[in-house]
From TrEMBL:
Identification of the protein by name: AB hydrolase-1 domain-containing protein
Entries under InterPro entries matching the protein: AB_hydrolase_1 (IPR000073), AB_hydrolase_fold (IPR029058), Polyketide_trans_af380 (IPR051411)
Organism: Neonectria ditissima
A Pfam family reported for this protein in Swiss-Prot or TrEMBL: Abhydrolase_6
Segments forming domain AB hydrolase-1: 54-281
Homology family: Belongs to the polyketide transferase af380 family.
Length: 301
């Protein structure tokens, strides 16, 4: 897909971190969608293709790197902190509310994988959000009980090391068998494994390691406690029926926990990493645009 006009933008978070991204301005003033990439991903991965579709449909799109990732500031690098990322979504809303092309009453959030659950959490805490689209949101971001003691021991060893003046420990996203430190339904498949490794092709800002403290931050986050607060904001869940990281039945349970208005869209024969690609992509985007146009601008809570 040809990338349309985009602008380099940056904005400040409440704690003074500069986040950088791209704005895909629509042809006229109206709704907007704020997008951030998945776990440890950079904005160059998939999001521009999605943003240009929104842009062509008259929805201004902001795509940004989360803190410590890609072009955005933040140290240590590749430090995944969902609680901070929730606040960053809120600061992105504040930034977009001042843009001349954006109706401040028509701002939606969009997330994929981990950022989908973060977007849902941010929506739960911010009545300024007019709608949310969550693509393949993990419902359980904890750790297998048998792994947790060892992980926490490594976390504390790293904290002691950093306090002593050493650089933060960086760990691979997964081992040679496709296993991760955090909880997923099954080990990452060979095809997903390859797709993640291909992230390095997106340039020097891409990195397939994360800080050890990322898992400390994740251990302290319990997103399911926030999910009841998402309603009555309109919510759309887009899921892959063959997702091995986020099981379809668990996604359905999450969807059932929301009140109306809500929309569920499932993509057959697709997994976690590829369901927004291929011949199904235009149909998924058409459904998302229909959802946003139906709900943005309506009187809300």
């Amino acid at each position: 897909m040809i990338i349309r006009h985009r602008e380099d933008v940056e904005f400040q978070t409440l704690d003074g971190v500069t986040l950088r991204g791209w704005l895909f301005p629509a042809a006229q003033r109206g709704p907007a969608v704020i997008m951030s990439p998945g776990f440890n991903c950079v904005k160059e991965m998939l999001l521009p293709e999605v943003a240009t579709v929104f842009q062509a449909a008259g929805i201004t799109a902001l795509v940004y790197d989360t803190r410590s990732i890609g072009a955005s500031d933040g140290i240590p690098r590749n430090d995944i902190n969902p609680s901070k990322q929730i606040g960053d979504y809120h600061d992105a809303v504040t930034f977009m509310r001042t843009h001349s092309l954006v109706d401040p009453a028509q701002i939606a959030l969009w997330g994929y994988s981990l950022s989908a659950t973060v977007a849902l959490s941010a929506t739960a805490l911010d009545a300024r959000v007019a709608a949310v689209v969550a693509c393949a949101p993990p419902t359980d971001v904890g750790f297998p009980p048998e792994k947790l003691p060892k992980i926490l021991a490594r976390v504390q060893k790293d904290r002691e090391s950093v306090v002593a003046g050493n650089p933060p420990c960086q760990v691979p996203l997964f081992d040679k068998k496709g296993n991760t430190l955090y909880k997923i339904a099954v080990p990452i498949s060979d095809s997903d494994h390859d797709l993640i490794r291909q992230a390095q092709a997106y340039g020097p800002t891409a990195n397939i390691t994360t800080s050890m403290q990322s898992y400390y931050h994740i251990a302290m986050w319990d997103p399911l406690k926030l999910m009841p607060l998402v309603s009555p904001t309109p919510v759309m869940l887009c899921v892959a029926e063959e997702d091995g990281m986020c099981l379809l039945e668990e996604e359905k349970k999450l969807f059932e926990s929301f009140r109306e208005p809500k929309t569920f869209y499932s993509v057959p024969n697709k997994g976690h990493m590829d369901f927004l690609a291929g011949e199904e992509f235009p149909h998924v985007m058409e459904a998302q645009i229909d959802f946003l146009k139906q709900h943005l601008g309506k009187k809300r809570r």
